[in-house]
Amino acid sequence: MSYIQQVRDTVAARNVGQPEFMQAVDEVLTTIAPIVESDAVYKNNAILERITEPDRQIMFRVPWTDDNGNIRVNRGYRVQFNNAIGPYKGGLRLHPSVNLSIIKFLSFEQIFKNSLTGLPIGGGKGGSDFDPKGKSEREIREFCQSFMTELARHIGADVDVPAGDIGVSGREIGYMFGQYKRLTNVYEGVLTGKGLPYGGSLARTEATGFGLVYIVQNMLETIGDGFKGKTVAISGAGNVAIYAAQKATELGGKVVTMSDSNGWIYDKNGINLQVIKDIKEIKRGRIKEYTDRVNGAEYHTDDNVWQTKCDIALPCATQNELTLADAKTLIKNGVIAVGEGANMPSTTEAINAFQAAHVLFMPAKAANAGGVAVSALEMSQNSQRLSWSFDKVDDKLKYIMRDIFDKAASAAKQYATPADYVAGANIAGFLKVAQAMIAQGV
Length: 442
Ligand code: NDP
Fold this sequence. Notes:
Elements: H1 3-14, H2 19-38, H3 40-44, H4 47-51, E1 56-65, E2 71-82, E3 88-94, H5 100-116, E4 122-128, H6 137-151, E5 160-163, H7 170-184, H8 204-221, E6 231-235, H9 239-250, E7 254-259, E8 264-266, H10 273-282, H11 290-293, E9 298-300, E10 312-315, H12 324-332, E11 337-339, H13 348-356, E12 360-362, H14 364-367, H15 369-384, H16 390-415, H17 421-440
Helix pairs in contact: 1-2, 2-5, 2-17, 5-17, 6-7, 8-9, 8-15, 8-16, 12-13, 15-16, 16-17
């Protein structure tokens, strides 16, 4: 049995009932096989056994009171997976679906993504099964304070620096930052995605969506193409989706779909982003309201955005939202390129189908790394007690996304198949972390 297979079986036996985590591990192990099998140094240093086991997994009780005076209890998580190249870094997700498997898959992916950015950040992720939908401002604040009351003892500007993810935007980061300061009496860059008046970075809000479009543009350039004149389907209507839609539109694309967990909209004239921002960022409403405000737009609750004919597909909602059946429909409809804004939004079978059909495919680890990259730039600004202009951060983001593209493309060419960016991103991300782990000893 190969070394890869042995490790895979051990990880599966040890992590029973964690399908998302195993999906992420399988994808990485399969794609890095050529380099791991070609050099005994990885086996001799037990790199795969070590890289698939988190440094620590923290689970904790988060008690809070609702507006009716009832005491409620949620479960909090922080998985600190690997700090070989820098402090743990990765977002916090608040969603009822959150469990250990989901946080572990996200944290594991984060190791390679953060490595690809070229910045000194390790991999971590956290969150809770708390559902922010329908909660009052006071309930959100109290939950965030209670969550941070436990999390504070495990994090720090040089230890672990959480950020936002699904259900965690500037508002939640603000409440958590306030509580961290109250508990520790230390003013430091312990969280990223902060508000601009207290240490946030310009362009952090836009970074993941903009970065996604920059790297897809880099990928399209390899076939002499770009966003100009293209029809774009986007899922989600949150932070990543909104700013991907904005940049795709600025580059000349026409975004025709967006969605939330209740349904999706189709606007043949191109989505009006001011209306979306008002509904989602200001009123915190449902995407259905778009059709009340924009003539001719459609709202659907059956099927999903991938039924729409498009040239470019950008899944920006959640994991496993794009299945094999969706991939087949997109391919039949002539899709040219897919870029993953969300983490692991395409199932393994869907990725295989895109690659078999020679659709340009940029995996999440590379495609959505712009968010964490600008978070690392926020850490740099906090350490220097400086703040950079929007254009300076945006220029650095463009440079980082181009660099990630080049690394993934060149690793694909050297170790796998040209334009296999899934293998390329995994291999390039892995090599740097593995070298650091070997150098630092067991
Ligand atoms: P938001 O909470 O801002 O938005 C999430 C969007 O996806 C919402 O429209 C939400 O709809 C929808 N959604 C969430 N869960 C589901 C579900 N189970 N089924 C259908 N729709 C769903 O999150 P972000 O935009 O920040 O994150 C989106 C994705 O991007 C996630 O996979 C995240 O891990 C990833 N990501 C985010 C980064 C960031 O900087 N924010 C960085 C890198 C990756 P509804 O409002 O109805 O729940």
